[in-house]
Amino acid sequence: MKISRFIINPLLDFIYPPICISCSSLLSDNSQKICSSCWDAVKTVTKDHPLYWETRNRLIASGSIDDLVSCYIFEREGPTRHIAHALKYREYRSLGINLGEKIGNLIADWEISFDVIVPVPLHRIKYRERGYNQSEYIARGIAGVTGKPAACDIVRRKRYTQTQTKLNIEERYLNMKDAFEILPDASKKISGKTCLLVDDIITTGATINSCAKEILAAGTNSIIAASAALAK
Ligand SMILES: [Zn+2]
How remote is the CA of residue 86 from the centroid of ligand 1, in Å? Predict the structure, then answer.
């Protein structure tokens, strides 16, 4: 196994050299899907960024979430459009882990403490279409850096919801209402704990808020929302 990988991977890299998913420049390291100059062009979240404050305040006001940690600002154009698109595909799951590691580092910088990582689940139809849940891979990246456990058996998406891109904030919150339910025995695992609830991208916060409501009702102590990115 090791020997074949030793031979085949360099051969594949020779036939299909790894390229940046955003600018198509050659990459020296195939585990990195994005070149360093594209990463440098992505805006990072700071605690005084208006979009961070706006999103955090909205999440806290909705009553289930206590804090927000997020790494990047995703825009409609440029590298972030390609990153957001790539996250939907299983072959780019290392990108999810990579983003999770970045969140993990930010959590240490911002001195945020929590007990357990819970990825926002996909509906089983979407899971079947994609073959994986990108939030689970982001959660794995966070777990690797922070040493905290990731639990994927806490909550389930019970209702299939159509894409929310054409909906306004009120419509999105209505669309996500009662979309999740707690799984059996989950409340034992989260009771009295602080959960880090992880999604890939937070826009209005309707999805993560709806998920947080169910987790809170199951007896968790508090919930911190985490995402790789924030988007308008
Ligand atoms: Zn690039």
Answer: 13
What domains appear along the chain, each with residue ranges and CATH number? 1-41 (no CATH), 43-231 (3.40.50.2020)
- The letter for the amino acid at 135 is S
How big is the CA angle at 179 (ends 209 and 116), to the nearest 5 degrees? Answer: 50
Q: How far, in Å, is the centroid of ligand 1 from the Cα of 50? A: 27
d(CA 42, CA 37): 9
CA distance 92 to 83: 9
Centre of ligand 1 to C-alpha 20, Å, is 5
Q: Name which of 183, 197, 120, 109 is nearest 153 in CA terms.
A: 183
Average pLDDT, consecutive stretches of 10 residues, N- to C-terminus, the chain (232 residues): 63 75 87 88 94 97 96 92 91 92 96 98 93 96 98 93 83 90 93 97 95 96 97 92
